[in-house]
């Protein structure tokens, strides 16, 4: 026969102390709250000008215009350009117009990836500014 110690019931010996587990959970919670405040979301910086029906003044600086059609074709200077050639074309045009802003006129049905590729190419060509101009045609 087994002998039981006096003063202890069977329920008392089966209890689990949860205090250390709660301490670990609270420390992890504090860690995640502190580190989450330093995480920065990365997004696309798009400059969309407000609509205006007025033509630009005659002495306005010329800009580099890139058109993206609804079927994701890229057009520069009235000719179709492949995605890999956008950067070199912008660099060539910037040699003539060093302070020109790159204006990306994109159709509403064009893919965002095409705009991102053109904007990245313009930034790689050291364009001072890239402006998104949505067009519905």
Question: Gist?
Answer:
With 137 residues, this protein is of the alpha/beta class. Helices cover 34% and strands 17% of the residues.
Structural account:
The chain is built from four helices and five strands. The chain is α/β, with parallel strands linked by helices and 137 residues long. It has a domain at 64-135: 2-Layer Sandwich (Nucleotidyltransferase, domain 5). A five-stranded mixed sheet has the order 3-2-1-4-5, covered by helices on one side. β1 (64-68) and β2 (74-76) form a beta hairpin. The mean pLDDT is 80.
Walk me through the topology.
Layout: H1 10-13, H2 19-36, E1 64-68, E2 74-76, E3 79-81, H3 86-96, E4 102-107, H4 112-124, E5 130-135
Parallel strand pairs: 1-4, 4-5
Antiparallel strand pairs: 1-2, 2-3
User: What is the gyration radius calculated from CA atoms?
Assistant: 31 Å
Task: Please estimate the helix content.
Answer: 25-40%
Query: What is the terminal separation in angstroms?
Result: 94 Å
Please give the count of helices: 4
The shape is elongated
Instruction: List low-pLDDT spans.
Output: none
Number of DSSP strand runs: 5
